[in-house]
Design brief:
The protein contains 5 helices and 8 strands, in the order E-E-E-H-E-E-H-H-H-E-H-E-E. The protein is an alpha/beta fold. Bound molecules: adenosine-5'-triphosphate.
């Protein structure tokens, strides 16, 4: 990960308000996390879950309040950010090279989601679940301390849900942090997420 043990990852959101197209979407949101902790952001469609993750990652400005953090952030959302024309392998290698990730670490991460047999397929030919797995591989093999996972279970079969939960557990055990949005319950052994309900 990006930070050593001497400087653990942390995140603090205080009185955050966020506007979209002139409408207040997030109103007075507060959340504090340290290394090893996970937050589950829940609530009905349109309540602002994705907006919150995009705000934390700096893609949407806060209207009011403060977000402070130590660590490197990786945002995983519906936009896979993988080049549609490249093979899965080359699309992932593009990011691995930028992030200075060793080839064997990328290969190991791709194996977690069983990408081996689809590494030579162009990204635009992937199914929903395959695309989700490829995009998750990018986050999992990276150096980020803080994973922002927006509906990461969408499209995943039961086996790959278990694989993702295992990867999350290892990340938390290593002092990482996770903020996740999901409409489904999150069941990860020995992990009790902090719930942020935006209902
Ligand atoms: N690009 C955008 N421009 C303006 N408003 C937007 C934009 N994207 C979303 N919104 C609005 O922001 C509000 C929150 O949307 P957001 O996507 O954060 O909700 P969500 O809780 O993630 O929903 P879902 O459960 O459907 O994924 C909604 O009212 C939506 O209409």
């Amino acid at each position: 990960m990006g930070l050593g043990q001497a400087y653990p990852a942390s995140l603090s959101i205080q009185h955050l308000c966020c506007m979209r197209s002139g409408r207040l979407v997030l109103d007075n949101i507060n959340l504090s996390l340290t290394g090893g902790q996970m937050a589950w952001v829940k609530g009905p469609n349109g309540c602002g879950k994705s907006t919150l993750l995009r705000c934390i990652s700096g893609l949407i400005p806060a209207f009011d309040g403060e977000i402070t953090y130590h660590g490197i952030i990786s945002l995983h959302d519906g936009n896979a950010a993988l080049d549609e024309e490249l093979s899965v392998e080359n699309a992932l290698k593009f990011w691995a090279n930028l992030d200075d990730i060793a080839a064997d670490k990328l290969a190991q991460s791709a194996e977690i989601f069983g990408l081996g047999h689809i590494m030579d397929i162009p990204v635009h030919m992937l199914s929903t679940g395959q695309r989700q797995r490829a995009a998750l591989t990018r986050t999992i093999c990276g150096n980020a301390d803080i994973w922002l996972l927006d509906e990461p279970y969408n499209g995943l079969d039961q086996h790959n849900v278990a694989m993702l939960n295992h990867a999350i557990k290892i990340h938390l055990d290593n002092g990482g942090m996770v903020i996740i949005t999901s409409h489904n319950d999150i069941i990860i052994e020995n992990i009790t997420p902090i719930i942020l309900d935006l209902s």
